[in-house]
Amino acid sequence: DSGVTQTPKHLITATGQRVTLRCSPRSGDLSVYWYQQSLDQGLQFLIQYYNGEERAKGNILERFSAQQFPDLHSELNLSSLELGDSALYFCASSPGELTDTQYFGPGTRLTVL
Amino acid sequence: KNQVEQSPQSLIILEGKNCTLQCNYTVSPFSNLRWYKQDTGRGPVSLTIMTFSENTKSNGRYTATLDADTKQSSLHITASQLSDSASYICVVSAGTYKYIFGTGTRLKVLA
Fold first, then answer.
1. Substitution target from A99, A100, A103 for chain B, most B beta carbons within 10 A
2. Does residue A3 come out as left (phi exceeding 0), alpha (psi in the -120 to 50 range) or beta?
3. A32 vs A90: CA distance, rounded Å
4. Nearest to B43 among A42, A97, A105 (CB)
5. CA of B80, closest CA in chain A: separation in Å?
6. pLDDT digits (tens, 9 = 90+) for A50-108
7. Given a cut of 90, is residue A27 above it in pLDDT?
């Protein structure tokens, strides 16, 4: 158990819908990262927050957005869902940034029908 | 173009044997290189993180090497166990906040 929690574990929804994935980092960690893992694209970095501020953006679509709240939990919002958005979404946290070890949560499996 | 290539794609070895996984990258500017172990359907677990100045880093039976001149890294697993069966992913950070993932090596350890 990494100490990072993600809810829900599974999510099934229809195309065009909007969903919110939630992540609680390890106690004391200030950085939160979101990743997407699909069968055809492998793991991809989406976005990083540090102490409430957006730090970096990777391959995140405009239909996706995220935020980190004052209590340091984070939410990833996915809208206008398409079939291709079906994937495992992982959240990770680290104490700081750069060369810190990232601890991954168990992931949320999103299925878009 | 920033790329990370891993080889082999898959590997089958017998329990107790050693193996070496390769990671070649064309990433600039190089910041650090990470190796992760990922069991199917679970989140990756960090094995090692190496910066430009580090050549070798160990974590138990896992030893990673880095040659920044040739832009190559390897992960050596000693005395493999059944629990080592997993995907091993190499990730290179380009600059401060960009993460480039390899497609992974799928390792199967047989009894």
1. A99
2. left
3. 10
4. A105
5. 23
6. 999 999 998 899 999 999 999 999 999 999 999 999 999 999 999 988 778 999 999 99
7. yes
| Contacts (Cβ under 8 Å, ≥6 apart) of B59 | B47, B48
Residue type, A87: A
How far B89 CA lies from chain A's nearest CA (Å)?
Answer: 9
What are the start-end ranges of the E strands in B1-111? Answer: 3-7, 10-14, 19-26, 30-38, 45-51, 56-59, 62-67, 72-77, 86-94, 98-101, 105-110
Give the residue on A whose Cα is nearest the Cα of B50: A99
Tell whether A27 is within 8 A of chain B (Cβ).
no
Compute CA distances A103 → A71, A77, A84, B28, whole Å.
Answer: 18, 21, 26, 25
Cα separation, B11 vs A56, whole angstroms: 34
Residues in B closer than 8 angstroms to A5, CB to CB, are: none
